[in-house]
Amino acid sequence: xxxxxxxxxxxxxxxxxxxxxxxxxxxxxxxxxxxxxxxxxxxxxxxxxxxxxxxxxxxxxxxxxxxxxxxxxxxxxxxxxxxxxxxxxxxxxxxxxxxxxxxxxxxxxxxx
Length: 112
Hints:
By secondary structure, the protein is mainly alpha-helical. It is built from four helices and no strands. The protein has a domain at 55-86.
């Protein structure tokens, strides 16, 4: 790009739809689709290794054991199984009082 441009050339560049000369988004820039970072690659390797050592039948057997333990009264296993099936229950968050106590006043109707 030349630096000693006339005002007319500069105005034409500003109107130009291909603004790659001015920075911003460019074709083929940024992370390529399908590229993965190191942690993703590690997770994939661990998953592949896990599948080599643990069969689908082993997983089915573990699930059966977990369900039987939950049904027999093991509350920790029951909680675990339910969280795996339905997700963890949302936790309440106090957005308004910043942890301070809220004094609530209730007015009851007068007895007649």
